[in-house]
Amino acid sequence: MSYSRWSHSKWYTxxxxxxxxxxxxxPLKKVKENQVFExxxxxxxxxxxKDIEPIELCLKEIKKEYPDASNEQIEELKxxxxxxxxxxxxxxKFLTYLKNYFIDxxxxxxxxxxxxRIKLLIKRKH
Length: 126
Description:
The protein is α+β, with helices and mostly antiparallel strands.
């Protein structure tokens, strides 16, 4: 998921790890902590969920990578990072996580069943 794009910001930021696709039907702390927030640019910068707090230390490190970023731009980036953190917190709430896991599971099951039916219809017509 993208949090910002270059068309309206200095930052192009996004969540680059897909936590819903691992094999466990329950949220794992290790998986949550290793979700990645990406800052795309020159240079690119990756930030793990577990490294966000304390946010001021995190922003200080980012400022070293992007010395030309203004204070307003760093504050804007802080908002994107906190939004990412909130999204991950929400995604890894137990009931939300289970709901997403089972939706993915049944979607895959229905999708593959549908593809099999289409293949059978194609075979019958030939």
